[in-house]
Design a protein that fits this description.
This protein is mainly α. It contains 13 helices and no strands. The protein has one domain.
Length: 310
């Protein structure tokens, strides 16, 4: 943990000393009425996105019989996001959310609640790749790719590989045949519970598709904060489509559990991707967008954490 905490300022120092993060752009932002309005708009977008995530969590745990009111789901989601901002990687926020949920509504269904949140995280990461893949294909069709690199095709490749693997398993009936066999064997009780929960989600494709749709809408709202960050810097030499293409790829670094809140890693990813597109303001844009996000997470997450999620 100490190494991870130390790594974050080290990465930020490297970005500044190497010239990849020019602090003068951040210090010279003109805080006009329009700029303040943009920040408020960004915070509102993130708060709206949290509502979508809370709805997604409620749907996932609800299919297992856990009655989670939307207000409580919003509180737990806020706590998770706020915790993820200070713990190494977004996964740390999920662990906090699991603890609060298992101490409350899911006290008697801890295995299901834990796997539901794991499923929630998986859907979020897949949807982030799907969002990037859709924008990548659109940019390619309109000849708007900011640069040519295999990196740009990571999202489409990941999405196709995931869909292909799931389709192959389901289409050949591997899952349908394996689950009854596994459940009939003398397996540890926890493992049988995990298999049963996995089967429960596998039998609800409409639920999963609906959750993916909610996640896509949330990712667009989060990407909007980076668009606002670019506007605060005076505008970027990139089109709207190009920014929507690069932002999800950089956001993936935020999920790597190496530094608190992905600090330094995400900014480095923004610097690399925007720099490859001919823009030197990637790191600054990443900092401004993530600052808006963390401001929203603090506004709702900190009070919820103080009240212990009540």
């Amino acid at each position: 943990m100490l190494v991870k905490i130390t790594l974050a300022p080290a990465l930020m120092y490297w970005l500044i000393s190497s010239g990849r993060l020019d602090q003068t752009y951040l210090l010279n932002i003109q805080w006009s009425q329009r700029a303040v309005g943009l920040v408020v708009l960004g915070v509102g977008a993130v708060l709206s996105g949290i509502l979508l995530l809370a709805w997604r969590l409620r749907l996932l745990v609800g299919c297992g019989g856990i009655d989670l009111p939307l207000g409580r789901a919003y509180s737990l989601t806020s706590i998770g996001l706020f915790s993820a901002a200070i713990l190494p990687g977004a996964v740390g926020g999920d662990l906090v959310k699991i603890i609060y949920l298992c101490r409350g509504e899911a006290a008697s269904q801890r295995v299901f609640a834990t796997l539901a949140i794991v499923c929630d995280r998986t859907i979020g990461l897949f949807s982030l790749l799907l969002f990037g893949a859709l924008v990548t294909v659109l940019a390619w069709l309109t000849d708007s790719l900011p640069f040519w690199s295999p990196v740009l095709w990571l999202a489409p490749t990941g999405v196709l590989a995931t869909i292909g693997a799931v389709g192959l398993l389901v289409g050949r009936g591997v899952v349908a045949r394996a689950i009854p066999v596994l459940q009939g064997r003398s397996l540890p009780r926890r493992l049988r519970q995990l298999i049963a929960v996995g089967d429960l989600f596998a039998r609800r494709p409409r639920l999963i598709l609906g959750c993916v749709g909610l996640a896509l809408a949330n990712h667009f709202l989060v990407c909007a904060t980076f668009l606002i960050g670019g506007e605060l810097l005076g505008g970027l030499d990139l089109s709207l489509l190009q920014q929507l293409l690069l932002n999800p790829l950089a956001m993936v670094a935020n999920a790597i559990p190496v530094t608190p809140g992905g600090l330094g890693l995400a900014e480095g990813a923004f610097s690399y991707l925007y720099g490859a597109a001919g823009c030197s303001l990637g790191a600054a844009t990443g900092i401004l967008g993530r600052t808006i996000q963390y401001a929203a997470y603090t506004i709702v997450g900190l009070p919820a954490l103080v009240l212990r999620g009540k």
